[in-house]
Description:
The chain is mainly α. It is 77% helix and 0% strand. Among the domains are: 1-78, NADH-ubiquinone/plastoquinone oxidoreductase chain 6, subunit NuoJ (Four Helix Bundle (Hemerythrin (Met), subunit A), Up-down Bundle), CATH 1.20.120; 132-169. Helix 1 packs antiparallel against helix 2 and helix 2 runs antiparallel to helix 3. The chain is globular, with a radius of gyration of 22 Å.
Amino acid sequence: MLDIIFYIFAALTILSAILVPVSRNPVNGAMFMIVSFVSTACLYVLLNAYFLAVLQILVYAGAIIVLFLFIIMLLNVEQVKTLRPSFFSQIAGLLALCILSLGVGSLFLSGSANPSPELAVSAGSGIARNFGYMLFTKYMLPFQVSGFMLLVSMIGVILLSKKINVEVPSRKEQGDA
């Protein structure tokens, strides 16, 4: 039964991840990304990695997607015009798909897709405590730098959106002139 549930969530993850760049509307793309993140968290739960599942929901499906939606709405992105990809990009995409398919096929045919028993790690009670201790002692500087970079990028997006909104006249003003 767990195998069937695993395959359902794996298929949902892959399908929604494919639909993220394919969707024309950026808000729909962000919603597909939420589905992908949540189904990945469900896969973590099936693997008994509850801490990773909670982090997946809180960090990615919570904070990152809210940031994406905030940026999308702040920039006032309208419906993307239908652009036809060039012949070169179609060939490059097809080549990338073939390479990916060959890699996945060789992984499953070689038999190395099944994890060895030596790699199985028992989940201890102190994993979250050790993670927090390492994050706020040894890795405090990278943690602070990444937070500062996110703050600077958000300020940049806000300034960009205000500059765009000031320079671009509204449709009513264009119709009146």
